Known about the structure:
This protein is of the alpha+beta class. Helices cover 40% and strands 16% of the residues. It contains three helices and three strands, in the order βααββα. Strands 1-3-2 form a three-stranded antiparallel β-sheet. It starts with 11 loop residues before the first strand and ends in a 9-residue tail after the last helix.
Amino acid sequence: MADGNNVSDVQFLTVAEVAGLMRVSKMTVYRLVHAGELPAVQFGRSYRVPESAVEDFLRRAQVDGQSETA
């Protein structure tokens, strides 16, 4: 690959595994995938999400703890 990453180094997670890590429902993960907010690869009717994509998503979604009313 052009950026130096090797495809064999990519760890893929199932939708159920992502839901467990994020402590959300599988439907929430499917919504994120279909909305394009969480990259995934489709194999037939199944989706696999790169572990790095989950880490990136959680990093972007992290809040700073500041209250808007304070």
